[in-house]
Structure formats: C-alpha cells, structure tokens
Specification:
Number of domains: 2
Number of strands: 13
Order of helices and strands: EHHEHEHEHEEEHEHEEHHHHEHEEHH
Radius of gyration: 21 Å
Bound molecules: pyridoxal-5'-phosphate
CATH topology of the largest domain: Aspartate Aminotransferase, domain 2
Strand content: 5-15%
Structural class: alpha/beta
Largest sheet: 7 strands, mixed
CATH superfamily of the largest domain: Type I PLP-dependent aspartate aminotransferase-like (Major domain)
Helix content: 40-55%
Number of helices: 14
Distance between the termini: 57 Å
Shape: globular
CATH class of the largest domain: Alpha Beta
Length: about 400
C-alpha cells in the first residue's frame, strides 16, 4: 500500500493565525530552490532585510528573519538580552506574557510580573510603579497586540517609561506587524519580534526581528555566552549581517524566504499605512455586522485590535459545535478562546490577506446561518445591511 499525497481542503482562515496566504505567495514558494549562499539568493536576502525595515518602520541594520516561527523570535530577544541574574519586568495581560516569563526564567533572569486582566491593555501606572520599585531592572517586556484577547497596548508610552528608567525593551509584535500602526524607530523600540503567518499573510515558520544599537551593545558585551547556539545573534550576524562575507551558519529555509519576500513586496506595493487602514475598515464593517447580530466585544473600543476580534459566545450556544460546523459546512476557520477565555469567546481574525470584504461577508453569512439553525439568541437578517453601509463608505 502506498500513501497518497496530502491534499488539504481550501479553507478561509479567520482565526488567530495562520491567515489566508495570498496566491502570489504560494506561487513564489514553488519557484526553484537554489543554494543559500548563491549570490542571487544573497541579493534576495538583502532585499528582504530592506523590506522588513520598511514594514517595521526602522533603519536598524540588524533587521532580519529568524529561520523559525514567532516563538523563536521571542526566544531570540530573550536569550540574547537576558543574562543570568538580570531583572526583567514582564507585562502579562493574556497568554503570551506568560511565555515571556518562562523565557526570562530559562535564561536565568528574574522576572517581575505586572499583571492585568485578560482583555485589558497593559496598565501604564502599574508598569511605572514596578520600574520605580525595581530600579535595578534591566529590561521591560510586553506584548503589543495580545492575540489571546484582541487588546492593544500602548507601545510608544511603555517604551518611553522603560527608557526613563534605563531599561531596554522587548516588544512582541507578532500580531501587530502589518495590521496596525507600529513604528519601531519613532517609538524607540530596542528589540522586536514578529511572525509571518499573521498580518503578513505568509506561511508560518519565519520570525522577523529587529534590534537597535543599544540592544546590540548589550548583546556584544555579555559576560556569559548566549545559552542557545542557534539563536545567538553574535553568530547569526555572520550569516545575515551586512558588509561582511557571508559564512555558513545554518541552511536558510530557501523557499520559505521566497514566500516572505513576496509577501513583503505585496505589502510594500499596497503601502504600510494603507494596510493599517484596510484592517481598520474591515474591522469596522465586521463589528457593525456582529453588533447588529447582537454579539458583543470583550475588549473596550479604545484599545481594540482591528485584526483580532474577540466576541462573547451567546448564552447557551455550543462553542465547539459552531466552530466545527463553520469548518465542515463552510470551510471557514474562526478561533476558539485560549486559557482564561476558553469556551467564552470566539476570536475572529482579520489578518493580512484575510482582511477582505469577501471574507467578512462569508464569515457573517455562515455564522448567522449556523447560529439561527441552532436557535441561538441572535438578531437575524440585519448584519449584512450593517456591514454594507461601512463597506460602501469612503474611508
Ligand atoms: C502567534 C503568536 C506568537 C507565537 O508565534 P508562533 O509563530 O506561533 O510561534 C507569539 N506572540 C503572539 C502575540 C502571537 O500572536
């Protein structure tokens, strides 16, 4: 018996990532594999760095894709910056802050937690108090766009606070990059990491990062070696760094990088600010539909992310049944709640190529069909008109 090829169904991805991959990116992935030290490939790497600088809005020379998923971008920041004994203030308002704490501990650092309720943004007052009480802290780490809840934190203000207390910053922008305003240089962010499968709409498995000079100084002047050989930037820079002859470090995921390059070309052609606006507009339309239907958001409007819409599941509705019917009958994936919000919310992602009118119309049509068949307490026949009103408006 031979095993047949794997042929996945075509789905519409409106969960917390991966998002719909643009057909141009899928096509780019199938281009011929060449050597990763081939001069033609090296040129493409240089272009990719420039494009990443554009989407991060930075001129940091150390702006590059780590050959592993977003979580490895997180580890790259922590293992390079945190030395044994370093005190790190970690903000937690959802799932991902908890992972940052794990990272600090595994690097031998000392985490000081600043906790906020899930669905709230990071509280500036609490962070300031923690920085004052822990004047020996070296780093402040926080999640810009918390994918588990859909809350945005004020990155600019948090970085300012950190700098006033002589701390470097580690910023998780896995879900924000490409989907909502993010300005690495203007905001003074020292280190940042992201992922390819959220608002860049690329296949999963690559983590764009950027480090500024201050952060690199700390990396270069460490007392101890970085605990991870693979993620040690002192070594990786010999491969991805500029102005030097490239030395073999690891084999780059050649075709995956074609995909990232293509996704960044698409984003550059659209314009980063237009992409932020598109996410906002699609969010406003989806919100109009959801609210007309009677569903409500768990995050306050003032710090709601357009690309991740967490809504309460109506009373008495079987969460798993709804999601499995959407998947099986409409080929539509939406996200379940994570951690403290499991079973309480749905997370509807509008990330990258998924933030399109046809997706939100499909999503709301399918959701209304499934919920009304299950006799859920929703308003029927009104969502479409509410969404159309937003979609046909000018901005
Ligand atoms: C998805 C996500 C990650 C992890 O990225 P992976 O590619 O799944 O490793 C980290 N932080 C946030 C905020 C995320 O949304």
């Amino acid at each position: 018996m031979t095993t047949p090829s794997f042929n996945p169904p075509v789905r519409t991805l409106m969960g917390p990532g991966p998002s719909d991959v643009h057909p141009r990116i899928l096509e780019a992935l199938s281009r011929p594999t060449i050597g990763h030290l081939d001069p033609v490939f090296v040129d493409m790497m240089e272009q990719t760095k420039g494009l990443l600088q554009y989407v991060f809005q930075t001129e940091n020379p150390l702006t590059m894709p780590v050959s592993a998923p977003g979580s490895a971008g997180m580890e790259t920041c922590f293992v390079n910056l945190v030395e044994p004994g370093d005190k790190v203030i970690v903000c937690q308002n959802g799932v991902f802050g908890g992972r940052m704490k794990e990272n600090v501990e595994r690097c031998g650092g000392v985490p000081v937690m600043v906790e906020d309720e899930w669905g709230k943004s990071v509280d500036l007052g609490k962070v300031e108090a923690a920085l004052e009480t822990n004047s020996d802290a070296k780093i402040l780490a926080f999640v810009h766009a918390e994918t588990s809840t859909g809350a945005r934190s004020d990155a600019k203000e948090l970085v300012e606070l950190a700098h006033r207390h002589d701390c470097l910053t580690i910023v998780d922008a896995v879900t924000s990059l490409g989907g909502s305003e993010l300005k690495v240089d203007d905001w003074g962010i020292d280190t940042i990491y992201s992922g390819t499968q959220k608002c860049l709409s690329c296949t999963p498995g690559i983590a764009p990062i950027s480090f500024n000079e201050r952060a690199l100084d700390k990396v270069r002047n460490r007392q101890s070696k970085v605990q991870s050989w693979f993620l040690d930037l002192n070594l990786v820079m010999g491969y991805w760094g500029s102005g030097q002859k490239r030395a073999y470090h690891h084999t780059a995921p050649v075709n995956a990088l074609y995909g990232l390059h293509e996704s960044l070309c698409i984003l550059q052609a659209e314009g980063i600010e237009s992409a932020w606006q598109r996410h906002n507009k699609m969010h406003t339309a989806l919100k109009a539909g959801l609210e007309a239907m009677g569903l409500s958001f768990i995050v306050d409007e003032s710090h709601r992310l357009p690309q991740l819409n967490a809504v309460s599941i109506p009373e008495g509705v079987d969460d798993a049944m709804v999601r499995s019917r959407l998947l099986n009958e409409y080929n539509l994936e939406i996200g379940a709640g994570l951690g403290a919000l499991a079973g309480k919310v749905w997370r509807i992602g509008l990330m990258g190529h998924s933030a399109r009118a046809e997706n939100i119309l499909l999503c709301m049509g399918a959701l209304e069909a499934v919920l009304s068949e299950m006799n859920a307490p929703i308003n029927t026949g009104v969502a479409l008109a509410a969404m159309q009103q937003v979609l046909s408006s000018e901005k």
